[in-house]
Amino acid sequence: MPSDLSSRGLISEPIGLIGEKERLGRAVLVAEGLNLSKLIVIREGQFYGLLDMETLAGMFVSPSARVEEFAMRAVGLAVLPDSDPLEALLLAFRHNLP
């Protein structure tokens, strides 16, 4: 499913949505918990895109928006289908991003 997130500058390159809402939702929670401004998205060890958390978060004006809804609407994101996607994403978070 194509996304317009790349055209809005929310991700660095267009990527496909992987049907793993729970993993993506947990990754988003971790990103928010670490107060990150950007989320590196990786699938099978390959770089898929860079998500601007602040810009994307601005799309959700309702404080009652659930993580599942956040993940569902964030089409164009991908997460690792590996055994432990959060560990890999946390390693990616350690990069010094502009």
Question: Could you characterize the architecture of this molecule?
Answer:
- With 98 residues, this protein is α+β, with helices and mostly antiparallel strands.
- The chain has helices spanning 21-33, 53-57, 67-73, 85-93, and strands at residues 38-43, 46-52.
- It has a two-stranded antiparallel sheet.
- Strand 1 (38-43) and strand 2 (46-52) form a beta hairpin.
- The longest helix is centred in the first third of the chain and has 13 residues, at 21-33.
Morphology? globular
Radius of gyration equals: 12 Å
Give the tally of structural domains.
1
Number of helices: 4
Strand line-up in the sheet with most strands? 1-2
Q: Count the strands?
A: 2
Poorly predicted runs of 5 or more residues: 1-20, 60-83
Q: Output the structural class.
A: alpha+beta
Describe the oligomeric state of these chains in a short phrase.
single chain
> Percent of residues in beta strands?
5-15%
**N-to-C span:** 29 Å
> What is the H-and-E element order?
HEEHHH
Sheet with most strands: 2 strands, antiparallel
Mean pLDDT equals 50
Main attributes?
98 residues, alpha+beta, 4 helices, globular, two-stranded antiparallel sheet
Topology, pairings included?
Blueprint (H helix, E strand, L loop, with lengths): L20 H13 L4 E6 L2 E7 H5 L9 H7 L11 H9 L5
Antiparallel strand pairs: 1-2
Q: How would you briefly describe this protein structure?
A:
By secondary structure, the chain is of the alpha+beta class. The chain has helices at residues 21-33, 53-57, 67-73, 85-93; strands at residues 38-43, 46-52.
